[in-house]
Amino acid sequence: MEKYQKLKQNQIKELNKLITDPQSSGLEIRRAQAILLLDQGNDPGSITGYGRRQCFNIRRAYYDKGLIGIEDKRKNNRQTLLNKKQRQEIIEILKTKTPKDKGFQAEYWTTAVLAYFIEKRYRIKYKSKTSYYLLFKDCKFTYHKPGRVYEKHNEQETLKWRKINENKVKQACAESDTVILCEDEMILSTQTTFQKIWLKAGEYPKIEVSNTKKNRSIYGFLNIKTGQEHAFKTQWQNMYITAEVLSKIRKLYPKQKILLFWDGPGWHRGSKVKEFLKNDGKIEVVYFPRYSPEENPQEHIWKEGRNKVTHNRFIEDIDIATDEFINYLNMTPFNYSLLGFGAI
User: Fold this and answer.
1) 234 band by pLDDT with thresholds 50, 70 and 90
2) Cα separation of 198 and 83, whole Å?
3) What is the pTM of this model?
4) Which residues sit opposite 233 in a β-bridge?
């Protein structure tokens, strides 16, 4: 091998790849740069800080051993955790920047995007996702699946609804004799639903599923001021049952004015319901905007109840399961808000 043998194309490609590899140490990058600069007939000292003799020795080691010859022997001992200053930098970025601000295509931070960003910026890669979760937690972030937006959802209509009803809710909160209720219905089935769970390594759960399908309907009313839930089991949903459930609500609040928020299915607008509301005289109904379930805090209560009671469970008796579900809801306080107002 000649002393000044020119690099082959595959060697040039290999060295350039090492320079751009986020796993490469600074020492390895400078050594690769020195070899390439020498090959081009340039003085590598001004860029790498090496003397000319050092550069020749580095090139010789690469010729003899390949990449192993310029490997950073201290690489395995390099920093493996973010230090305090780096953690603060990451937390500040998470709080004030989006991934797009940092050159990514994604609009929202995910564990994968954060991991790649940290590895690229600091050449640090955690072995466990938990370390990234803790960074999000330090920023007061919570984990969410992206919400659904219905095709017929009208954001302008929703914004107008919020503006009209915000003062109404605020005023009702200040009135001691006014109750604010948010209502919705759901159907509980014997069909088994599943949710991810944490298990010891090597364990695999098997959950029995039902071959028959039976349903029960549940009407749920959340008292925004107190966080108290009022849930009722029914066979199905229609205007007659809705009027009957409203009469049960009236017995719970015999003298108070009720500000009732619910959506607009037919069984809420039927003649029997209108008749009950007219005869009662102290229930004001506000309809949620169309195709905007995210405005109704009762939707969150269904999800929480399902997570706690019915997911990953074989339901043999629909009535027993429904009673347990309702008992959990009615015995648990829920601090969800409506238009920024909620239980104190």
Assistant:
1) very high
2) 30
3) 0.53
4) 218
